């Protein structure tokens, strides 16, 4: 069984994506199901399945994803107005592709809580 994800296929150019940023460590592209006028996914080129799989050696790489978000926000002119960066973890956290990724959302006033339509789970 292969652990190849759709993001691996985008990195390897096996499938197309609307790429807005790329460097040696990361790639950013438009989400195909946008939740805001600007909805980008920022992914590391190194495959890491979930936040739970991030190792100490990945600190700089994960931090790099956030600096890419800042750079994109400045370049595209929405840094001053504001934006949201979200990383989901596992099924209950809303993760659907098991390759860590930041959701960068902007272009409108984003309400709180971010996913107000979801029923909270009881935690005892």
UniProtKB/TrEMBL annotation:
It comes from the Bacteria. Residues 6-115 form the HIT domain. Pfam families: HIT. A motif (Histidine triad motif) lies at residues 99-103. This is Histidine triad nucleotide-binding protein. The active site is at residue 101. PANTHER family: HISTIDINE TRIAD HIT PROTEIN. InterPro entries: Histidine_triad_CS (IPR019808), Histidine_triad_HIT (IPR001310), HIT-like (IPR011146), HIT-like_sf (IPR036265). One of its GO terms (molecular function) is catalytic activity.
């Amino acid at each position: 069984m292969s652990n190849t994800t759709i993001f691996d296929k985008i990195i390897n150019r096996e499938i197309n994506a609307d790429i807005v940023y790329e460097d040696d460590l990361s790639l950013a592209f438009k989400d195909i199901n946008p939740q805001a006028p600007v909805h980008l996914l920022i992914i590391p080129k190194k495959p890491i399945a979930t936040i739970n799989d991030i190792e100490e050696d990945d600190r700089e790489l994960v931090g790099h994803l956030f600096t890419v978000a800042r750079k994109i926000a400045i370049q595209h002119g929405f840094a001053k107005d504001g934006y949201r960066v979200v990383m989901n973890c596992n099924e209950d956290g809303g993760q659907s592709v098991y390759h860590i990724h930041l959701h960068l959302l902007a272009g409108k006033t984003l309400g709180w809580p971010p996913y107000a339509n979801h029923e909270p789970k009881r935690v005892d």
